Amino acid sequence: MSTDTGLPSIKRGDLVLYSVLAVIFLASCAASWFLLSGARDRSDLVLEAVLDGRVVESVDIESLKRESTIAIKAGGGINILSVGPGGIKMISADCRGGDCLRMPMIGSRGGIIACLPHRLIVRVRSRGQANAANVNAIDSMTY
Amino acid sequence: MTRRPRKFDMVVILSVIGIAGIFLINTMGGVRTVTRDGITMNTVVTMTVVSSKPRRQIDAILDEAFALMDELDGRFSMWNAGSSLSEINRNAGISPLKIDRDMYTVLETAVRVAMITDGAYDPTVGTVTRIWRDEAGSGRLPSSEDIASAISLVGYEGLRLTSGDSAYLENAGAVIDLGGIAKGYALWSLRRLLRENGIGSALINMGGDVFAVGGSEGRRDWRIGVQSPFKDRGVPLCAVDVTDISVVTAGVYERRWDMGGMEWTHIYDPSTGLPVKGDLLSATVISSDPIEADALSTAFMVMGQARSLDLLRLLPGVDAIFVLDSEDRGKEALATSGVRNSLKMMDSEYRLTFLDVY
Amino acid sequence: MDARFERVSGPRRLALISLCSAMAIVTGAAESLFPLPFPGMRLGIANVFNLLALILSGPGSSVSVAVLRLFLLFFLSGNMFSLTCGAAGLLLSLPVTIVLYERHNTALSIPAISTASAFAFNIGQVAAAIILTGEPAIASYLPLLLAAAVITGLAVGRLAETLARRLRYLLGRD
Predict the structure, then answer these.
(1) Which residues 132-171 on chain C approach chain B with CB closer than 8 angstroms?
(2) Contact B239, B222 (CB under 8 A)
(3) In this structure, what DSSP letter does residue B216 have?
(4) Closest by Cβ to A142, choosing from B48, B216, B224
(5) Which ipTM value was assigned to this complex?
(6) Residue B206 β-bridge partners
(7) A42-133, CATH topology level
(8) Distance from CA of residue B279 to its chain's centroid?
(9) Between the N and C ends of chain B, which has fewer C-beta atoms within 10 Å?
(10) Model-level pTM?
């Protein structure tokens, strides 16, 4: 037993366990590459704000030539997003905690920003994905 | 010293994992959205209910809702000989009839809207709908004599409602048709049913007549799309964000058919006995009362743009969106200023103008 | 050869659980300040104290410390999402840790066990986040979290081992 040397102790089974963990890690990399590979071409990207599973706001990123802000009413408060060439970031939110403000910028690689107290998710998708998921976010039609 | 985990340890582990599991399942349940489609009231009905109740309970409420619509259909249909409406029609010119409160409410609203629209909506239009429907199968137009005799029996003044529980059609042969109002009443009843069952958030679409009950999950507005005339179903001209309000549209592009070389629609002008040929392609009414909205949307199609806007001046709280029949001047739509902030244009071919009617 | 420590029981066990829980809550509160790509998720540094309790006094104590920390932190922060994520993480990581330590202690070092535990913790958190939000894209943060788990796992394991040795001495014999 290497208990008193102060050096990291390594036992015979460790390598087996580390190998298993390495396989899990690689599998997660593959899964995330697969999830993000859908959205790469910036001209094809749509920003979607999803409230309780429904798209409430959908903005063509290409149409935004310069930095602009989008305000989204959600869960009794307001979240303000900054959308620009560099990416998308939550810049203001009146939720408790303000965790969403600390989330990293998202952009052409896809990704999401979540404001959980307001149940709001902001995500970037390719236009094809966005159209298939929700047409103009209409709940019902009158005719 | 080696020791297997004690029994106590195992009990603690299992109970904690169990509690955590139950807790997780509960948290994940949350608010659910249940949608059901069905065919009733002679149309397709889609009901969406948002509630944190258990799925089983929501299903039971939806069962009850669809049963209610079937029941109302049986009472308000002029084509169903066993309906209480048919009973009133059979007793036209014979004797007043005791009616229940539901029927009284519907007839009372029908007469009120008939009065304010100066008969553009008229519940006694049944003789006209009947002759057109009888001829629809044959492909011939009703003769002008038939139409003349049909319109001679139309007149809401001949419908006497007294003491809250009795209805009487004075003219023998007159027929009440609640087609333009029954769906609105069904929507109103459904909201009552949902509220009694503790559901404050739902969206009901009854063949295009929409009632947004509460907001979407009590937080956000429901977004209702207004059909772009003659485009595929589901293509919106614009959308309105609403909470606890009904959005009802009457349009000439629905249920059109060719007859005698002309296109006809299902909305009849009670004064001429002919299908409407006004200057509107569609009239969408936004009102907290779905019964009124249903009748008004039909009336506006008959009245046309100018008269409708005059009437809207007298109806604060009622908003409307009109799509004009103006091919030569380009595609045009009008909306009352009450929806200015909640309306979102979606069909770029149309030019929308807001009108301050109040 | 069994490398496990002699286990603490009786009143000393109670003292150990209390001590570990208290330290775990402080650590948990501190680590919630560290920004992760997804709000409510934690690095799992506070897991050092469940591991410590496991080493010194068995699975029951370990679970007690973990659950006490989870709920007390919830009462302090009121963050429901954090609670659910943490519960899901523990739901996976506690069984992994306990089984590895109790059954394969002779073959595995504590930092290795701790790394596996950190992996399980993060996979559980991400799974809970995906289910709660209905957004599978959250899984794209998994590689980042797992990479962090290697570092925190090794550090937590090493720390737990050292602490166990010193605390065992302090707690004395029955």
Answers:
(1) 132
(2) no
(3) B
(4) B224
(5) 0.80
(6) B45, B209
(7) mini-chromosome maintenance (MCM) complex, domain 2 (2.60.320)
(8) 22
(9) N
(10) 0.59
